[in-house]
Design brief:
This protein has 9 helices and 9 strands. With 211 residues, the chain is α/β, with parallel strands linked by helices. It has a domain of 137 residues: Rossmann fold. β5 and β6 form a beta hairpin. α1 crosses α7.
Amino acid sequence: MSDTAPGCLFVIAAPSGGGKTSLVNALLAREPGIRLSVSYTTRGPRPGEHEGVHYHFVDQGRFEALRAAGEFLEHAHVHGHWYATSATWLAGQVASGQDVLLEIDWQGARQVRRLVPDSVLIFILPPSLAVLRERLEKRGQDAPEVIARRLAGAVEEMAHWEEFDYVIINQDFATAVDDLTAIVRAARLKVARQRARHARLLQGLFEPTDS
């Protein structure tokens, strides 16, 4: 039986339309041991989104009250709305040995790295701006002027990709899922994590035995 050790914290960021949500869903289907952190946001739900599943949808007043109470691990203002991660929920999950995945932007990832230095930061890039525009248009959720703002914001977001540990070019979806899965599995096998997770097993391997 494995010893209890802190879980891995994975942080995934991407520009709007980069394919982050689809990749995360595919990863969770392959790796059911990872739990997705549900962020807070002040924006309204999009079609198909549900409270407590995709986000905790709160108004500006509630968000500010939670922030003042120290509830958030990180928070960021993106495309006119606030987003944040629950610090208390996340700390409890990781401490119990649960692997957790955060879908946040580069600002949030930077804050998480300062607070949780051994978190694994992954950035998703599109193969081109033309492909990114096409993906945003195909979603059919935003007006042309909103898409234009999102594209301008994407250029700013993508400029921070070198702050991350890994970068995946989402050109071929199946390949990108394989790459993301490989990063997760490799992070779980790092020496420090294996030492903590399998302390008794490793001790037994190196104890002197009677011959």
